[in-house]
């Protein structure tokens, strides 16, 4: 028996996008497989729309849409006949024409799936997951391989589905996806849920009184003497030569001191960027920075 | 709330889909129709079958029908299933209302549909070459063909579900050649070395070849052969249920 996941606890609700965030190999796909009924967990309990997905029949499957990581599409067929075939499995499918139109599939309707690009296959797989007009959709890495235009189209569609009241569960290892799409995020690491919350909750400072944590980066000549900044209650580093990071609960006063530091050193930063602590920072804090 | 289409409709849709996929595939068409037709003609114009009792075409036609069963149920279906498994198609379709059982039933329908087409094509060609089958043997032959399709479909699924698709491709093609040459499909085993013959009787290929020859040459239902085919179906199905990996 292989313990890929052990200690994953999560819940997803209708009308929300729930994101499973984790590194490759953290157990996201295995978690989804258990939830979809593709894999029977050795322990624990899974409920999908109130039923055990592994034991459930066609009734439950007709209410759930699945987009697998590798797509799961037959290779020789063209996209539209495939979508019509899948639509035939349902009593009240969505309109294939609408989905084709919406996801721009018409542009490559006459190409067999094996010859489509990664992003085109992703869009067909998404359409195949939605054609049964599901109440719940599972999307495993929906933005993998998408160019910026397709990504915008796919994200807009996901947001629309959420507004329609669908429960959407997606996995991603891209922080940006989670930050843009998710109502609620579960961070999975080494087969466990290690943190969860809304994006705002997760990126908030651990100490409420300290205010919102921010990360400021500036580019300037390499090798500045940072001693004068060390007195501030902030973390200051030269991350790579010429790029400096200042992290912590930054106040306007700190910014004034920083400007004073630049004046004293006669430095005009080439670029300055400031943002709240990102999901990525939270993720790296929690799951560590070492490669595995 | 959505609901699944009725079971029968789902299974028939999948059966039609898989049948079309098989018929559109060039390599599959080669092994399903062209090579059996060449075997039929080859056996009629060469003296290979002359050592057996019966006319060349009467001996050849039932054997080639048995070969068609191996082409479609084992080789064609096995390779298609193996690659569908590699690409996650089996997993995706099993999350739709079709489900795992619907998927398997769809494959069985596709195998039987393609086999029906092959039977019409091969029988027509054989009749043109002077084949005179026993009319009373046609019904027994159809029953044995279906039993054979069951045995080879189960074997094809077992192979496709347990090894890599490249290996499935190699194994099922090799089996097709080996069984055609030495598996009692085209050539009755009666004249073979004594050590080999009893073992060969237990092969599903020998059973199907003999069963079809008994039916179409002598209007007999070969009960022993049908029991061998049924046994292979049961063993291979149980093994497939136990070891088939969907991903």
TrEMBL record, chain B:
It holds the Pfam family ABC2_membrane. The keyword Membrane applies. One of its GO terms (biological process) is response to antibiotic. The chain crosses the membrane at residues 29-49, 61-83, 104-129, 135-160, 167-187, 223-244. The keyword Transmembrane helix applies. GO terms for molecular function: ABC-type transporter activity. It is a multi-pass membrane protein. Residues 17-216 form the ABC-2 type transporter transmembrane domain. Keywords: Antibiotic resistance, Membrane, Transmembrane, Transmembrane helix. InterPro entries: ABC2_TM (IPR013525), ABC_2_transport (IPR000412), Nod_factor_ABC_transporter (IPR051784). GO terms for cellular component: ATP-binding cassette (ABC) transporter complex. It is found in: Membrane. This is ABC-2 type transporter. It comes from Arthrobacter crystallopoietes BAB-32.
């Amino acid at each position: 028996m292989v313990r890929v996941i052990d200690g994953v606890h999560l819940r997803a609700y209708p009308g929300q996008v729930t994101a499973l965030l984790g590194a490759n190999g953290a157990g996201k796909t295995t978690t989804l497989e258990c939830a979809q009924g593709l894999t029977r967990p050795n322990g624990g309990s899974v409920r999908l729309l109130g039923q055990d997905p592994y034991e459930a029949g066609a009734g439950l499957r007709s209410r759930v849409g699945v987009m697998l990581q590798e797509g799961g599409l037959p290779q020789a067929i063209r996209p539209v006949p495939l979508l019509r075939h899948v639509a035939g499995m349902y009593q009240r499918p969505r309109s294939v024409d609408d989905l084709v139109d919406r996801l721009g599939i018409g542009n490559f309707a006459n190409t067999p799936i094996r010859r489509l690009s990664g992003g085109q296959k992703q869009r067909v797989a998404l359409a195949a997951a939605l054609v049964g007009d599901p109440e719940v959709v599972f999307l495993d890495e929906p933005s993998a391989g998408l160019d910026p235009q397709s990504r915008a189209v796919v994200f807009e569609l996901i947001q629309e589905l959420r507004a329609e009241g669908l429960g959407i569960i997606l996995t991603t290892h891209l922080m940006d996806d989670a930050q843009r799409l998710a109502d609620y995020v579960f961070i999975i690491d080494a087969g466990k849920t290690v943190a969860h919350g809304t994006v705002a909750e997760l990126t908030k400072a651990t100490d409420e009184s300290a205010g919102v944590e921010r990360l400021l980066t500036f580019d300037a000549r390499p090798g500045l003497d940072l001693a004068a900044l060390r007195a501030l209650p902030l973390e200051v580093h030269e991350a790579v030569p010429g790029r400096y990071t200042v992290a912590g609960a930054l106040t306007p006063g700190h910014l004034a001191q920083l400007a004073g530091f630049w004046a004293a050193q006669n430095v005009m930063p080439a670029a300055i960027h400031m943002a709240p602590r990102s999901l990525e920072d939270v993720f790296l804090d929690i799951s560590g920075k070492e490669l595995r | 709330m959505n609901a699944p289409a009725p079971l029968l409709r789902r299974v028939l849709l999948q059966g039609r889909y898989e049948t079309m996929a098989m018929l559109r595939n060039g390599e599959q068409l080669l092994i399903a129709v062209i090579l059996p037709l060449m075997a039929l003609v080859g056996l009629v114009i060469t003296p290979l079958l002359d050592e057996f009792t019966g006319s060349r075409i009467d001996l050849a036609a039932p054997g080639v029908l048995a070969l068609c069963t191996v082409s479609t149920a084992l080789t064609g279906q096995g390779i298609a299933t193996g690659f569908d498994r590699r690409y996650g198609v089996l997993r995706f379709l099993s999350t739709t209302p079709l489900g795992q059982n619907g998927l398997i039933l769809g494959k069985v329908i596709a195998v039987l549909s393609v086999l029906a087409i092959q039977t019409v094509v091969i029988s027509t060609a054989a009749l043109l070459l002077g084949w005179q089958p026993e009319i009373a043997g046609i019904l027994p032959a159809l029953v044995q063909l279906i039993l054979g399709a069951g045995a080879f479909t189960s074997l094809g699924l077992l192979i496709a579900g347990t090894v890599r698709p490249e290996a499935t491709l190699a194994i099922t093609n090799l089996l097709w050649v080996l069984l055609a040459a030495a598996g009692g499909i085209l050539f009755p085993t009666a004249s073979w070395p004594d050590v080999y013959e009893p073992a060969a009787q237990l092969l599903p290929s020998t059973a199907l070849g003999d069963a079809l020859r008994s039916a179409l040459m002598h209007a007999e239902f070969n009960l022993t052969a049908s029991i061998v085919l049924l046994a292979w179906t049961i063993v291979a199905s149980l093994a497939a249920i136990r070891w088939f990996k969907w991903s």
